[in-house]
Every structure is written in structure tokens, then in C-alpha cells.
């Protein structure tokens, strides 16, 4: 590949367009397009390799999460539990998570964003299956229905996602980065991000939708940069070295920075709200943001038929619904509520439980908010 010409040069623009025409192809309409036929497999071998990497990566992440959960359960049963970071089993789970995330990262170098991003539902459903099998969690009817819907949605996603073959080189990324579609898109994202950040920081509004929208906006930059970095690494291994171009360093910095701030806001949401609520909503927001980023930046639905797009979106809806059903009310089953049951006390209306109060020296408070310590303090003040 020739060296990059000065910005604004007509030769550079025409060279970039010529390269895009060679590296950017969409499956031609025909007998095998949009169905799992022999022609479809031949055209999409590299995509299926990316799908396989993403599915295996998400399954490894599921295993790692359950291993970490199992290590926490073991430590909790010990008489003198040690810190979790001193557990070999916990570190094994962390190592497996790193392997799974590496598989997801590599998958973006072989398949479109709009195909890889929705496959995150595999991690949620896989975690539910593993927890039922090895951690002896309850298997609910909603779990079976959710898994079925998620698998059906995954099948539609793999079958009807855009079958684009696109070699991601430094010149390609630079061409997309200065395109008017992306410039408008990133300006709107910056405005929305600043408005939400103002309400979050200045007004103290920490609603889950605000936090997860901030995460989704950062996630769009993450998937764009991840695909650029992964694609340029893949291109360097198969064709010509791309890692020496400045655009690679820029995308790598964007990837690291967006991931760091994304984790920050996601952790804040996890602290304020239940995991069973945050996980499905974050999955939906992340997937929608990633799909929009893939469509605008990499133009992944260019030339796609309306029916293909509709079935693809329906597959996304099924995977979203499956994730919601699998995670719904699951955390409540593991909550161990400690209370003293006094039975039916005459003269009391269903006030039969005293909940532990971790914020005071007394054991607990009555459910109606009255506290015996308050009355004692009041009597002391009167004296």
C-alpha cells in the first residue's frame, strides 16, 4: 500500500475510494443470499470464524463469572474467610475472563460489528445454564423460554446480519474517520454526552437510564476503535503492516480511554441498582449503540434488502427478550433475608418481622420506621 498522501489531496481521496471498492463487498443477491446454503457458507467463511470466536469468547466469560461466584461462595463458608484476591480459584476465573475478552476482541477483526455485538446474549444465557448445572441454581420456566428466544435470535442474527467482507486497513479507517456521516454522528454523541454528564454531575441525577446511556455512548466509540485496531492487526498479519500508521495509535488510545470510562459508569450503575435490572438494560443499550456505530462508521448495511434488515432486527428483539427473561428476578432468589419472626403479635398489623439495621448499634428497627432507641433518646432529652 502506498504511503498516505497529504490531507485534502484529490489523489489520496481517489486512492481511498479505489481501495474501498476492492476491500468492501456485499453478498450479491442470489440463490444463497440470506439463507444457510452452501453458497452462503462459502461467502461467509471468515464471518463464521469471527462468530465462532465471539461465541466461544462469551462462553468462556460465562464460565469465568461462575468460577468467581463459586470462589466467593467457598470463601463465605469458611470460619475465617480470607480476601477473595488471595484465592487461586478466583484468579483462575479472572484469567479465563481475559481469554474470553481476547476472543471477542479478535472476532471484530473477522466479522462486522452488527454481527458480533448482539452475540453478547450468549454470555448471559451461558452463565444461566452453567449456574443451574454446577452451582445448583433453580431452573425456572422463564429461564427455558429466555434461552430458547435467545438461541432463536442468535440464529437469525447470524443468518441475516450483513454479509460484508471488508479489509480494515489504516487508509480505510482514516477515510471513514473524516466522512461526513461519522462527523455528524460524533458531534451529536458529544452533545448528548455533555448534557447527560451535566445532569449527572451538577444536578445529581443518577437515574439508571442516564448512567447506562453514558455507557452506551462510550461503547459506540469502543466498538469502532476495537474493530479498527483488531482489523488493522488482522490486515497486518495477512497483507501489509498497518501498526506503524498514526491512525492505529489514535484508535488504540480511544479504545483504552473509552473502555476505562465505560467501566466507571457501569460500576456506578451496579452500585445503585440491582444486577438483574442493569444487565439486560445495559445489553440492550450496548447492542443498539454498537449497531448504530457499525451502520454509520463502517456502513455495514449498505445495499442490504429491507426484508434482511427487518429479520435481523427481529433477531435482536428476540435476543433482548431472552436476556430479560433469564435475568428477571434471579438475584432475589439468592438474597438471604435475616429476620426474627415473632409470629402474630396481638394488636399489630402484619408487623411481624424486625429487619437487621446495619447502620445503627441496635439489632434492628420495626418495619413502620419506629425505633425503640429513638424513644429512649427523646426521654433523655426531656430530662
Automatic annotation (TrEMBL):
Membrane topology, record value: Multi-pass membrane protein
Record bears the keyword Transmembrane helix: yes
Biased composition (Basic and acidic residues): 374-383
GO cellular component terms listed in the entry, alphabetical order: membrane
Pfam families reported for this sequence: Mg_trans_NIPA
Subcellular location(s) per record: Membrane
Keywords associated with the record: Membrane, Transmembrane, Transmembrane helix
MF term (GO), any: magnesium ion transmembrane transporter activity
Annotated family: Belongs to the NIPA family.
Protein name: NIPA like domain containing 2
Organism: Nomascus leucogenys (Northern white-cheeked gibbon)
Lineage of the organism: Eukaryota, Metazoa, Chordata, Craniata, Vertebrata
Gene: NIPAL2
Amino acid at each position: 500500500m502506498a504511503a498516505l498522501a497529504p490531507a485534502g489531496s484529490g489523489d489520496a481521496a481517489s486512492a481511498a475510494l479505489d481501495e474501498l471498492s476492492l476491500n468492501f463487498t456485499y453478498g450479491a443477491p442470489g440463490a444463497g443470499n440470506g439463507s444457510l446454503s452452501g453458497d452462503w457458507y462459502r461467502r461467509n467463511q471468515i464471518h463464521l470464524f469471527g462468530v465462532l470466536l465471539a461465541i466461544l469468547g462469551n462462553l468462556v466469560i460465562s464460565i469465568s463469572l461462575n468460577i468467581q461466584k463459586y470462589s466467593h461462595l467457598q470463601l463465605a463458608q469458611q470460619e475465617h474467610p480470607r480476601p477473595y484476591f488471595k484465592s487461586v480459584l478466583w484468579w483462575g476465573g479472572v484469567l479465563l475472563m481475559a481469554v474470553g475478552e481476547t476472543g471477542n476482541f479478535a472476532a471484530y477483526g473477522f466479522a462486522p460489528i452488527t454481527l458480533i455485538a448482539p452475540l453478547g446474549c450468549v454470555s448471559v444465557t451461558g452463565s444461566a445454564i452453567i449456574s443451574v448445572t454446577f452451582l445448583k441454581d433453580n431452573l425456572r420456566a422463564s429461564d427455558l423460554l429466555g434461552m430458547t428466544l435467545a438461541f432463536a435470535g442468535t440464529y437469525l442474527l447470524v443468518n441475516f446480519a450483513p454479509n460484508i467482507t471488508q479489509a480494515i486497513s489504516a487508509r480505510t479507517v482514516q477515510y471513514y474517520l473524516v466522512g461526513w456521516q461519522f462527523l455528524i454522528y460524533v458531534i451529536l454523541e458529544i452533545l448528548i454526552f455533555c448534557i447527560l454528564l451535566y445532569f449527572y454531575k451538577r444536578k445529581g441525577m443518577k437515574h439508571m437510564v442516564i448512567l447506562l446511556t453514558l455507557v452506551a455512548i462510550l461503547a459506540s466509540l469502543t466498538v469502532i476503535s476495537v474493530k479498527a485496531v483488531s482489523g488493522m492487526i488482522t490486515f497486518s498479519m495477512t497483507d501489509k503492516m498497518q501498526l506503524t500508521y498514526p491512525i492505529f495509535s489514535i484508535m488504540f488510545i480511544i479504545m483504552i480511554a473509552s473502555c476505562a470510562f465505560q467501566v466507571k459508569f457501569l460500576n456506578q450503575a451496579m452500585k445503585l441498582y440491582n444486577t438483574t435490572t442493569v444487565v439486560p438494560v445495559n445489553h440492550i443499550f450496548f447492542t443498539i449503540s454498537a449497531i448504530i456505530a457499525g451502520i454509520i462508521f463502517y456502513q455495514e448495511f449498505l445495499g442490504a434488502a429491507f426484508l434482511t434488515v427487518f429479520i435481523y432486527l427481529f433477531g435482536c428483539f428476540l435476543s433482548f427478550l431472552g436476556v430479560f427473561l433469564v435475568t428477571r428476578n434471579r438475584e432475589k432468589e439468592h438474597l438471604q433475608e435475616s429476620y426474627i419472626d415473632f409470629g402474630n403479635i396481638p394488636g399489630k398489623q402484619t408487623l411481624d418481622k424486625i429487619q437487621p439495621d446495619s447502620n445503627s448499634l441496635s439489632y434492628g428497627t420495626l418495619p413502620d420506621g419506629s425505633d425503640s432507641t429513638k424513644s429512649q433518646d427523646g426521654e433523655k432529652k426531656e430530662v
